[in-house]
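A reminder from the course coordinator: this example appears on the midterm review sheet, so study it carefully.

Given structure:
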């Protein structure tokens, strides 16, 4: 290379090197000046503005400080995030103190990666608007994914390697207006990195019921991928109740899209009653397990199996949260082995109901507090010291009104079914019931009612209707109307009964053990203003025809019935003396009425035209 060309090349190279060196020096000076400025500048207004725009809510700090380095140190106090404009309180979030160490590298990818985070004195108010939208749904410009100072959804949730918090309070107002309070005395979250499982522990109280939460979840990387369900396992332990869940959530921040196995073990129901805002105690153990699902306002527990005292059950439960100022809607589809309502009532401290029917509302105002669909069955059902078998209950409570599609149980060797409605406004109720007894054995029926059951045999059919209205049960009974029909064909009655009814003198000197065929037994009762007129009552047998009439007072639980045999149907030795059966229904007495006239038999009979259509045939 010629000397002149080499000299020119060296001159150009020197100039480029000097220029690059000068540029590096300028950049270093600029960076140093920027760092010096940022370390001394008041960043609080800038962060408040950016956070407010990102959330669409006013955000303010009492103090805000950044210490530059890797990790980045951020400390602030008295953070306040405003509530939605429709919220019940002006503040949604308040954080007393916040101290964090942030990894710088993940920030460049739009992820908040906290190497260490400490928070204290946190209050959060959660509620929904009339359309069901939570106040935690922010209106700011940031969409899904990316950096979120406060996460709007699971894609913006930060990585918490070492988190500890204390003195927190979260309140949640349900759509029906109930207020739930979650006190967080201590919270800890730990994970080795963003791709490892996360451990969570929290101690505090739920509606003043002490509780401890222990959970293991999938990694933060899975959490931020909203295309896949997020796996979670947790246990929630209280003084008397333990709850365990293992499954997935589509939106963990909202406990939304839940699917998984849930189990509950309650030594008493005290914790659950208090957690739901109720008062009182219930020394009643309960265990239940099933598949939990939640989608929006709808919760369900399918394939459920559980146990109450001395009773296993299975089926499904569901809850739909009510709209604002509207009741929740519950659906129960359960089958029990042995259900003891008396024992359950005793556990709640309700060993006996009021005996004053005039004080018992026919349509209680509390019926409006819940909507429910009930489909229950039980092999045995104990209530009011009686045991019913093969019980089914299908009904609906809606807006305070009850529709009983069917209540059925085995009775007297047959089956008794009841359906009807209860409507009203809480001050005045209207009750309409229909009942039917099919294929009952009159002997078995007599034994269930406390009689010997040996005097009369045969298949019994019966039907009844009842309508009443009033403010209380007692007042409604006094204005009740209805009818009942009882019929037996091709039965038999003990010879001794015929002789006693007819006053046959031969019964004084012999004991008849045989039975007389009965071609027909018919009884009709018509009810008006709480008084049932029994007419006709007729029994036709080979040896005698017995007729009767009387009255049944529902309000006073008293019966006054007279029965006699027709002279032309009995033997020469029969005196045909009327017999009066009267007294309280639980203590009836019988006595002969010698010399009595027959005017009592001439009261108008309930002919078919006076019966309700469903009873006429």
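Designed residues:
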């Amino acid at each position: 290379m010629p000397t002149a060309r080499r000299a020119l090349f060296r001159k150009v190279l020197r100039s480029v090197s000097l220029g690059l060196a000068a540029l590096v020096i300028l950049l270093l000076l600029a960076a140093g000046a920027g760092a010096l400025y940022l370390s001394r500048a008041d960043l609080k207004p800038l962060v408040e503005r950016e956070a407010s725009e990102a959330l669409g809510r006013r955000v303010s700090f009492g103090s805000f400080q950044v210490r530059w380095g890797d990790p980045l140190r951020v400390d602030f106090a008295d953070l306040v995030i405003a509530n939605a404009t429709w919220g019940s309180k002006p503040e949604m979030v308040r954080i007393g103190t916040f101290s964090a160490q942030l990894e710088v590298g993940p920030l460049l990818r739009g992820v908040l990666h906290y190497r260490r985070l400490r928070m204290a004195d946190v209050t959060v108010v959660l509620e929904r608007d009339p359309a069901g939208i939570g106040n935690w749904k922010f209106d700011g410009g940031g969409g899904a994914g990316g950096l979120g100072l406060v996460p709007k959804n699971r894609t913006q949730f930060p990585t918490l390697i070492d988190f500890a918090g204390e003195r927190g309070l979260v309140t949640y107002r349900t759509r029906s207006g109930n207020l739930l309070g979650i006190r967080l005395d201590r919270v800890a979250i730990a994970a080795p990195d963003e791709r490892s499982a996360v451990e969570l522990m929290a101690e505090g109280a739920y509606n003043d019921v002490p509780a401890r939460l222990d959970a293991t979840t999938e990694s933060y990387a899975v959490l931020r991928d909203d295309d896949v369900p997020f796996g979670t396992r947790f246990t929630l332990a209280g003084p008397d109740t333990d709850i365990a869940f293992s499954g997935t959530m589509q939106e963990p921040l909202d406990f939304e899209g839940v699917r998984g196995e849930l189990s509950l073990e309650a030594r008493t129901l005290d914790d659950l009653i208090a957690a739901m805002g109720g008062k009182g105690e219930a020394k009643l153990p309960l265990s239940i397990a099933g598949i939990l699902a939640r989608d929006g306002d709808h919760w369900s527990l399918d394939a459920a199996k559980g146990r109450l005292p001395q009773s296993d059950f299975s089926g499904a439960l569901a809850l739909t949260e009510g709209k604002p100022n509207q009741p929740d809607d519950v659906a129960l589809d359960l089958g029990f082995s042995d259900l003891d309502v008396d024992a359950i009532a005793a556990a709640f401290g309700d060993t006996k109901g009021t005996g004053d029917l005039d004080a018992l509302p026919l349509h209680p105002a509390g019926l409006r507090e819940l909507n429910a669909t009930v489909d229950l069955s039980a092999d045995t059902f104990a209530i009011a010291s009686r045991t019913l078998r093969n019980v089914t209950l299908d009904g609906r409570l809606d807006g305070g009104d009850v529709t009983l599609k069917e209540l059925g149980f085995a009775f007297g060797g047959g089956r008794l079914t009841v359906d009807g409605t209860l409507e009203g406004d809480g001050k005045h109720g209207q009750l309409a019931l229909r009942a039917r007894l099919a294929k009952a054995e009159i002997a078995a029926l007599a034994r269930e009612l406390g009689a010997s059951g040996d005097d009369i045999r045969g298949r019994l059919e019966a039907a009844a209707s009842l309508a009443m209205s009033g403010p209380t049960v007692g007042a409604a009974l006094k204005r009740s109307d209805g009818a009942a029909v009882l019929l037996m064909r091709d039965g038999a009655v003990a010879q001794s009964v015929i002789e006693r009814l007819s006053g046959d003198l031969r019964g004084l000197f012999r004991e008849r053990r045989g039975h007389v065929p009965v071609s027909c037994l018919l009884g009709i009762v018509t009810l008006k203003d709480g008084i049932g007129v029994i007419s006709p009552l007729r029994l036709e047998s080979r040896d005698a025809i017995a007729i009767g009439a009387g009255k049944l007072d529902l309000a006073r639980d008293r019966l006054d019935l007279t029965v006699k045999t027709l002279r032309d149907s009995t033997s020469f030795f029969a005196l045909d003396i009327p017999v009066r059966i009267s007294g309280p229904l639980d203590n009836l007495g019988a006595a002969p009425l010698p010399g009595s006239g027959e005017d009592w038999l001439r009261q108008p009979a309930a002919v078919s035209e006076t019966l309700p259509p469903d009873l006429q045939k």
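Residues 1-40, 143-147, 502-512 have pLDDT under 50 and may be disordered. The CA atoms of residues 444 and 450 lie 10 Å apart.
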